[in-house]
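step: validate -> pass
step: tokenize input -> pass
step: predict -> running
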Amino acid sequence: MHTDLVAALDIGGTKIAGALVDGGGNIRLRARRPTPAQDDGETVMGAVAAVLAELSESPLWARASAIGIGSAGPVDASAGTVSPVNVPGWRDFPLVARVREATGGLPAELVGDGVAMTAAEHWQGAARGFGNALCMVVSTGVGGGLVLGGRLHTGPTGNAGHIGHISVDLDGDPCPCGGRGCVERIASGPNIARRALENGWRPGPDGDASAAAVARAARAGDPVASASYERAAQALAAGIAATATLVEIEIAVIGGGVAGAGEVLFAPLRRALRDYAALSFVRRLTVAPALTGTDAGLVGAAAAATAAATRTCVTPPVVAGGRA
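step: predict -> pass
step: emit ->
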């Protein structure tokens, strides 16, 4: 029997997606359920089990050799547990053990969602071919992951590269994480919109007050909307430059909904990076939009599981920790 596919889960506060992924990163089968995020932990696990059950009904399921799990965090890959901020019913929830139980004992690999996106971009996206990269998801929150020396660098618990909670403003607003002036508190979509509203920007007739609406206003020349994105870009540039200075990354890849603003974000980001990334060894740093899109979580989870099974240095990248 061929075992040439990998199962993947992408678990967030809005949706639980599942897939079977082949060795070329192509999704062969999909399943999806809404996340019952405000319900108890067993109800959430029931939705995960329903996704797995739908996948397992396909004849392709017999070809799956392992399962990768990308989850909103924090995660603890060493313990196989998750405590997503936006899923309060899961605190130290033994997700790896429960998924293995639901899949008949498939080897399982757990990574955070930012790390999964990084694995996807290194395997199939904008970071492909780079030995040292920072990949970021800038959306409702700001997450990320690192590739160092050609390998995904997750740290002992799977949270390395979580750039959203680097402080870039020592006297800045308190962040829900407990810090002050974090990248996320300035550059996430909700905070871009909040700042624009606080400074006098007003939504159009449709009432859309999202970061995407602020981006449209900035593109049309609204100075307050533009200033909010410029502030977000400055925070991202400071975090990226600090990371590059510390570990000498060659490329920073940015995905997530906020990256959909295009040059409204990327133009001021590149300008700000010229100011912050001033040392000779970080001046050549490239910034690029992510390429793997909404499938990044699934493709990255599959990459993590494949790499854990092979434990080689070739792409897809190696992921340490979390295997049950």
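step: describe -> Residues 312-324 have pLDDT under 50 and may be disordered.
step: cleanup -> pass
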